[in-house]
Amino acid sequence: MIHLEDDIFFDGKNCLYNDDETEKVLNVKLLKLDRLENFGVPIEYMYVVFASCTDGFISRSKGWTIYGKTDIDNADKIVILFDETMSLREYLEALVEILDLAIKTSKKPFIYHAYERGNMRTRTMLDKVVNSWFDQVGGVLVYYTKYPDVSGYYRPHGMNYEPYVQQAVYTQDLPNHFFLQIDKLQNISNKTIRRQLRNNSILLYNDTFYAEIDNEEYIYMVLNAIAPTNVEFYNNLGVRYIPFPNTGALAYAKKAQFENPIIKQYVKPEFSPFIVTTSKITQQLNTETIKCKQSSVDKLDDGENVLIGILTTEDVDLAQPALIKQDGKSKVVYIWEQEAADTGKYITNISVPNKDPDTTLNLPTAMMVMSNCNCANDPNGLCLPKVEYVVAKLSVASPNMQRIYGGEVSDGAVLMEDVLIGTKQLIEYAVSVNKPIAICIPYGSNINSHDGTDALEQMLNKYSRMQGVTLITSTGEEGDKNLHSRVTIDETSTKTLKIPKDNQNIVGCLWAKYPGGLQASIYNLQKKDKYSLESPAVIAIGQGKIYTTGIKISADNGSPLIYFRLENVDAGDWNIDINLDHPDRGIVDMWISNTELNNGAVFRGGDPFVTIPSLGNIPHMMCVGAYDDHALTTTRESGRGYTREDDVVPACVVQAAHMKVAVDDNVSATLNGANVALAIMAGQAAAVYSIVNKKNMQYLPNTPTMTFFLTANLDQVDTVEYPNRQQGYGIFNLQNLKDWLLTNGVI
């Protein structure tokens, strides 16, 4: 008699005993496997398979060590083969040797049993013994069954050796399919692994970031070209259908609703939302009084029958004098307040509140004031007395989505999908009143390809080609923040990420510019333990975790990429080692969370170029940067181009430093920032629209045409080569624009 566990004994043949009963274990008939693939095994694991095999199995199963024929001491993939059946004694002998190897090598064994378990007794004495052994080494037992309902295997019954914790996992997947699914479960507890593997739902996307989204979270999916356009189809699935005519469509629902296999064939092949934020307009209040500019009554570029649109999460200060018409009515004629997806509250007939204006200008209010150029020291100053404003007030992205895809939580961060919806709402209003519109889109993200190829960006790009629509964004203010690093690789290159304090949440991405193999790992310089970012994983480190999507190939542009997230990791310097499988040089760009979603993490020696946030890289959007005509240079913080693929951005820069504007009759403010430049150019576009409107042109300019008009006659410094990464094609000058419009018959 051999003592196995508690009061359970083995008779040396085919029976287990305890004081009350005998359990006879019959030989099991093993499945014949044709081959096992040569999987890469995470360093802390070993894979073991009990099976029978067909002829030629050994030659086809490269990388697997055959138990009993080859030494297994250094093996990470072991197959234990039997002719057809396996006895209890043979099973226990092999199992003990595997457990001994696991203890000696400190590896966690995944043991796959390739025989039909579904027609055998549940929760036996043998189960209790093996479960206890494997719990001690952190291993996972896996049993094959063709039966989908295995709930009985997890429920205790009335036998006297109960209760015990069932550690095993039952699967309908054969070994190759099973091992493919577990790569992303690295370096977390065996109990967590079992819990995840027992989850019967198959995620729509096998992605470590996507897996972190709660099933009750409302999310968007980008629908593909073959997706049904019948609203009833989506209603039957509990999903909201959001069409963008001639552009594409989104679906919106709780995450759990998308775990329906029917939807899988109709969505984008990867889930890649991004959290966008806006840089602030800095301001200093002055006691100097500035009067709003007045326009002559016969001015052509007066903004008549033209709209300027603003996307924001804040309320506009409707009491601001610059936003009130001479007859006392508000220049803000339409506000759409988002409630959920494309549903919201429409506000028209807006009255001016009976209150003093706020003493500071929030972002949407400041942009409206600057677009009308009520600025005492603006060389490009306009006055658009007849222009009107429309606003899309967007919902803030949920804290959970911000943490997974953005970094820290900000009260002004939104989803890119909501930017797209807000833009659609403003354009549809402009079409309904038959007026052209220039829309200020001050948003962008670092966690993005920076080449304008994302599906959501392409949907927005199609709106930029509509006649009478000009979409304008800015270069942002990431140019001096050290949140980007470009690596040109001959051999392994290392970049250091400096994390100034504990318990931060940092999201980052790596994009390889040329096709080929991407290699990347990360480690804390003080601890030296190196963690690969190349395979999908959730890696536990002390009280924190590293999440990595592993290497993916973008469905939008074909580039290799890795997204990673550092959650509650220790402060200090973290090195990222990068290499490429290339005979020649390659380029990898890395970005981490935007300033508004970042508590001070930076790259040591970061690169100021390719720092224009995501939307500024969209091919037909107009992107403008901030220029300081006193320093005769782009402002220090203004983002620099080009795109990741070296397309020229920005289109131009415009004076946007130290701009003095009226706040009320007694207070003025000095404004600075890239979004000042954005607002000024929106005003210039509105002025051009008011001119071409009066000429009854057959087609109103769209964004590419308007960009050409506004940049056709720029100032260029004699000693500077153009285009360049700081100034694009040059420096905007209003008088140059008027001269060009006159010379070319637009005026």
Structure description:
The chain is an alpha/beta fold and 747 residues long. The chain folds into four domains: 2-197, no CATH class; 208-271; 279-479 and 615-743, Peptidase S8/S53 domain (Rossmann fold, 3-Layer(aba) Sandwich); 484-607, Sandwich (Jelly Rolls). Helix content is 20%, strand content 28%. It has 15 helices and 43 strands. Strands 19, 20, 21, 22, 24, 26, 39, 40 and 41 form a nine-stranded mixed beta sheet that branches. β42 and β43 form a beta hairpin. The protein is elongated and about 105 Å long. The model has no long low-confidence stretch (mean pLDDT 89).
Task: Report a brief summary of the structure.
The chain has 747 residues and is an alpha/beta fold. Helix 9 packs across helix 13 and helix 11 runs parallel beside helix 12 (455-464).
Q: How is the topology of this model organized?
A:
Layout: E1 2-5, E2 8-10, E3 15-17, E4 22-24, E5 28-29, E6 32-33, E7 45-53, H1 57-60, E8 65-66, E9 77-81, E10 85-86, H2 88-105, E11 108-113, H3 125-137, E12 140-144, E13 169-171, H4 175-181, H5 190-197, H6 208-211, E14 218-222, H7 231-236, E15 240-244, E16 248-254, H8 261-264, E17 275-278, E18 282-286, E19 307-312, E20 332-340, E21 343-347, H9 363-371, E22 388-393, H10 399-405, E23 414-415, H11 416-432, E24 437-440, E25 443-444, H12 455-464, E26 469-474, E27 484-489, E28 493-499, E29 504-512, E30 517-524, E31 530-532, E32 537-541, E33 544-548, E34 552-553, E35 560-569, E36 572-581, E37 586-592, E38 602-603, E39 622-628, E40 633-634, E41 652-655, E42 659-662, E43 668-672, H13 674-694, H14 703-711, H15 734-743
Parallel strand pairs: 6-7, 7-9, 7-11, 8-9, 11-12, 12-13, 19-22, 19-24, 20-22, 24-26, 26-39, 39-41
Antiparallel strand pairs: 1-2, 2-3, 3-4, 5-10, 14-16, 15-16, 17-23, 17-25, 18-43, 20-21, 27-37, 28-36, 28-38, 29-35, 29-37, 30-31, 30-36, 32-33, 33-35, 34-35, 39-40, 42-43
